[in-house]
Amino acid sequence: MGLMIIIAPAFADIYKYEDRSGKLYFTDRPMKGSRYRLLSQTKTNQKRSSGSRIDIASTEKNRQRYAPLIQEVARKVRLNPALLHAVIRTESAYDPRALSRTGARGLMQLMPETAKRYGVYDSWDPKSNLTGGATYLRDLLVMFDNDLRLAVAAYNAGENAVKRFGNRVPPYPETQAYVTRVLQFYSENETSGRFASID
Questions:
Q1: Catalytic pick among 18, 72, 91, 188
Q2: What is residue 190's DSSP assignment?
Q3: CA atoms within 13 A of residue 44's CA, in its CB half-sphere
Q4: How far apart are CA 160 and CA 29, in angstroms?
C-alpha cells in the first residue's frame, strides 16, 4: 500500500476509520471505537484532555436525581422522555460530569461545536446540557422524517455522516452498536412504562 498524505484544513479535525475488510473512511466527527485514529487536529483540540471519566457506580442515584428535569426538558422540546432517558443512559450513564476522550461533556455528551450551535454556554450545567442535547435530537428526528434509527445514528456520528451514506446508519461499528443500545433501552423504557410519555 502506498503512502497516503492528507492535508487537512486548519479549522477541522480529521479522523480515519478502517473497517475489518480494510476499507478506509474519513470523518470530522470523533468516535469512540478503537479503530479510529486522529489524523489532523486543531490547536484548540490539541489542548483537550486525552482522558475520559464517567461515574457508572452512581447511575441509578443520578437517574432518580435528574428524572424530574429530564421529564421537564422532554415536555418542553416535545420529545418522548423514554427516548431521552435511553440516549442519556447510553451517552453518560446519567453522569452530569461525564467527559469523553474526544471532549464530549455532560449528560447528553455534547461536543463543544454542538453546544455552541444550540446556545449551551456551560455544558456542565445539567439543564442547559439536557436542553441543548434534547433539542438537537428532536431536530434530527425532524431532519430524518422521524426515522428513529437514523436520528439516533446522527446523534452519534453526525447528520452529515448519515447523509453521506445515503440516509443509512453509517458502517461504523461504534455507531451501529450505539444505535442498538439506544433502541434497546428505549424499548425497555416503553415496555416497562417507567417513564411516562408527554401529553
A1: 91
A2: H
A3: 7
A4: 9
Q: Is 72 part of the annotated catalytic residue set?
A: no
Per-residue pLDDT tens digits for 97-129 = 999 988 999 999 999 999 999 999 999 999 999
What is the rounded average pLDDT of the residues 21-38? 52
Contact 18, 24 (CB under 8 A): yes
Position of cell 479549522? Answer: 11
Give this prediction's pTM.
0.73
DSSP state string for 49-97: -S--B--GGGHHHHHHHHHHHHHHHHHHHT--HHHHHHHHHHHHTT-TT
- How far apart CA 91 and CA 107 sit, in angstroms, is 7
**What is the sign, positive or negative, of the torsion defined by CA atoms of 169, 170, 173, 175?**
negative
User: Is residue 29 pLDDT above 90, yes or no?
Assistant: no
22, amino acid identity: G
What are the C-alpha distances in Å from 75 to residues 82, 116, 120, 155, 167? Answer: 11, 23, 19, 20, 28
